[in-house]
Every structure is written in C-alpha cells, then in structure tokens.
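User: I'm writing a tutorial on reading structure tokens. Could you give me a worked example: one chain, its sequence, then its tokens, then a sentence or two explaining what the tokens reveal?
Assistant: Sure. Here is the example chain.
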Amino acid sequence: MILDYITNLSPTQQLTYLFVGATFALYIGIAIWSRASSTNEFYIAGRGVHPLANGMATAADWMSAASFISMAGIIAFSGYDGSVYLMGWTGGYVLLALLLAPYLRRFGQYTVPDFIGERYYSKAARVVAVVCLIVISFTYIAGQMRGVGIVFSRFLEVELHVGVFIGMGVVFFYAVLGGMKGITYTQVAQYCVLIFAFMVPAIFISILITGVPIPQVGLGSELADGSGLTVLEKLDRTLVDLGFNPYTLSQKSTVDMFAITMALMVGTAGLPHVIVRFFTVPKVSDARLSAGYALLFIALLYTTAPAVGAFARINFIDSVHETPYAEAPQWFKTWEDIGLVHWVDKNADGAMQYAPGAPFEGKPNATETRGEHGERLLTNPPTSSANEVFVDQDIFVLANPEIAKLPPWVFALVAAGGLAAALSTAAGLLLVISSSVSHDLLKKTLMPKISDKQELLFARIAAASAIGIAGWFGINPPGFVVEVVALAFGLAAASLFPTIIMGIFLKRISKEGAIAGMLSGLGFTFLYIVYFKFIAPEMNSAEHWPFGISPEGIGALGMVFNFGMAFFVSHLTKLPPIRIRRLVDRIRLPVEASAAH
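And here are its predicted structure tokens:
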C-alpha cells in the first residue's frame, strides 16, 4: 500500500519525501547517538563542544525560519525598508559576540535566569527573568512552527496544522531525548542542510537572470535580457509603472527605521537560546572563537537574502501580471490550493492584475468553492484596492525555484532546508524554556532538594509541554513569520538585554533596580504590542503610533524604560553586597579570565 502511494506521487513529491525523510532520519540518529545522561549534558552539552561545531550550531540556532523562509520575502515586498532586518540582526550578533558571550561563559552557569538570579542575589529576580524568557521564547517559537507548517503544507501536500504536528513530533524526539547535547550536533547537520538549500537556488536564479553565478554580485549586475538595466533599476521601473513606490526608496520614517534596527540589534543580543550556546564550550577563548565562526556562517545567508528577494519579486511580477488565470503557471495554482496565494477577479476580465494594495488579505473558503474561472473563492474577499493578486510573503523563498522553473530536486532541497531552519531554532527555544522551568523555577526556587535525576525528568516534561504550546502558536500565529519573530526581539530588547549588560558592567545596580527594570521594560513593550496587534489592529499605522514607532520597533523604547527604571530604583536602594561586586569584577577582568584557563 505504501509502495503504491509513493509510486503515484509526482517526481517532485517523491524527491521531497526522500530529502526530508533522509534529513529527519539523520537528526533522529544524531539524537540517539548523543542522548543526554545528566543535567550537565542536557543543559550545556557537558561544556565539551568544539568552537567550530558550536559556531555552526549557533548559526543554525540563530538563522531561524524567519531568516530562511521569511526574510527574503519581506525584502521582496518592502525593498529598502527590509534592510532593517539585515542591519538589526547582523549588528546584534556582533553586539552579542563582543559584549555578552565571553563574560557569560566566564560566569559559568547553565541559563540566563541563572546569571540574573546570582548576579542580583535574588530568587525574585530569577523568577522575573524566567517569565521574560518564556514570553520571548513562545513569541519567537510561533514563527518557527508556522514556518514548519508552511513547508509541509506545500511540499508534502498536507494541511498546515498537520505539518505543524509532524514538526512537533520530530522536535520532541531529539530535543527531549538529547537535550543541549543532542540539539547541538543536530544543529550542525541542520546548518549544512539549510545553507546548501538556500545557496543552490540563489546561484541558479542569479545565473538565469544576470548570467553571474554569485548572487551578491548579481544583485548589482545588468540583466541578461539585453535591456541594459540592472536588477534594481528594472525593479524600480516595473514597480513604478504598476503604481508602487520605487523598490529602493524607503517608506518608513527615520525614527521608526532607527527604532526597529535598534530593537532587533539589542534583541538579538538578549535572545536566551543564542546566549546559552556560549555556555557549551570549554573555555572563554572558545566562546569568542565560536562567535567568530558563527558570524562567518551567518554572513553566507544574510548577504545572499537581498539578491534572493529582488530576483523573486522580478520573477513573480513577470509570471502573474496581466496573465489570464486560465494560463496561470502551475506554481500559482498549487499555492492557491493550500490558501497561500489568492486571485480575486475584481474587473471581471479573467486576467490577473497586480497593483498596489495589501499584499495578502482574505481567507480561502472552507469548502474550496470555485469561481467561474476555476479560482478558489475567498471568505470576505478584499475590496480595498484594485489589486487582484494576493501572496503570503512567507512563500517567496519556497516558491522561488518553481517560479524560476528550476529542476524538481531543487524544490525538494529547499523544503529540507526550510524545515532544518525552523526546527533548529524551535529546538533551541524549547530547550531554554525547559531548562528555565526545571533548573531555575524548580531546582533553584521551588524544589531545591530534588535530585539530578528528578531535575532531568522535569526538564524533559517541561520540554514536552512547551512543544504542545508551541504547536498551538504555530497553527494560530499573530502574523507573518518574520513579523512574529521581530516582536520576540523587541521583547528581548526591553527585558533581558539591559539587565544582563548592567549586571556585567555596573556594580551599582541592585536587585530591586533589576526587577523594576525588567518588569517595566517587558510590561510596556508587551502592552504596546498587544494593543496595536490584537486589541485595536485598525489603529496599527504610522499616524496612530505614539512616538511614531511601530510595534516591531517599540522594544527600543522599552529598553530605555528598563535602563531608566533600573538606575532610578538602584540609587534609592542599598548597594549590592560586596561578594556581588567582586563577582562582577571576576566576570570582567581579563587577568581573572586568563587564570581560569
């Protein structure tokens, strides 16, 4: 029966099942081989990870579904404005590598709340840090699970929620079984898969469009169609002719651009699942070295994404604009069938007109009712503009090989890469959630007498519970993948980053100041996001934002509130104990660090 099912699949589907199945088997095999047998291995991989391997694992952990699936898509739609994600995320990683990673490794504990609890000599501070971490991680993980669902729903042709459940099962196996040890070596394999899957189609498409095999160079090169225009010139002219703003012109205010970039930068440096990676290496010097390796590995994808976004927008417009729906390319109808591309025939001419308007509106009719041209009808079809073509920006990287008519094996490779990116980050997030619950909340706060074996059991139970909640968020996300992830970075920027920085460099900050800072920063940012994203989404526009800052950038202001409140309260309370001030010196001083080696 299974053999009959497989033989009835298209060659593309067969290759996809082969590639995805092979990579899943590899991940599970690594999890079995590297199964954690102690809390030390479950939390920090026994501090035995080589810097090169840790650099690859860090890159995979950090380059999530937002980086692989969604970032090029948002650049394709936003043009210049999408650069905030490139600047913010890469700049934030440099900030993390220079200001946090070596010092936290020198501190030598398991988790971020561990550092905050010890540095601020307070169980209350530890618990507040756990709350911040859980809010950040679940916001972030929603984007990863949505990415998993999108990949499965297209390439394995299952419903989005079924794809999320399959992804949950795979992550459950290697995250719960292997802990940080299993996740680390799985992420090394996932980095190899995702970077190969991202680069291969980018190189193919760059050659087809410009004749240049290096995408980063192809972005600034002349098109191969003999027009004499460069890629960006062609995009600008095409979009202006259709009524859009130029691709290379920013539409965001300077204040909002700065705020989003800053929130992404400091949010990156405050992400707990990335910070904990630097606890897994043997020495402080290894933490610095692995950070350098990771930056090189990350740069491969991040310097390629702008080219992928530009190529995708050109191919998309050429493929659909003014094309009769009856002659629509197969990729369009395939993505339409799973509800991630829509066409609404507003002028009743049977042709697809691409014009300014919301990029994605309306929901597919649950009964899959079809219109007179065979198009899938929508519930509450959009009427706010002349635009007739609606595309979920999260599909652009995944659909790019189909739009460009690349070989079927490239589709399968991209599917495997998208899953690797989403699952690697999801596993890292689940681990920091489970370790914070079992180690910081239970072992260090509520149940200090539990044994190492009991703590490991609680960590696995917490990981399994977190996977269930993450799956729900993946099925019911509050936006596109990259938007959801941007909100998580804002929350991290407003809560954990200032507290960690002050804990490393300022001996005067007291436990009361740290707690007040975290609560004020997280509370302000969270309420701002909830109001504009959920309570009053109709108000979510530049003319209604206080300070002119969008929800994606409000974490920068939340960070300022955190710093200000922490300084104010600390100067009204007693100095931290002398042992804490000595701890701060011990973390920072290079002489001490050298002696520790």
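What the tokens reveal: The domain at 36-312+407-480 is CATH 1.20.1730.10 (Sodium/glucose cotransporter). Residues 591-597 have pLDDT under 50 and may be disordered.
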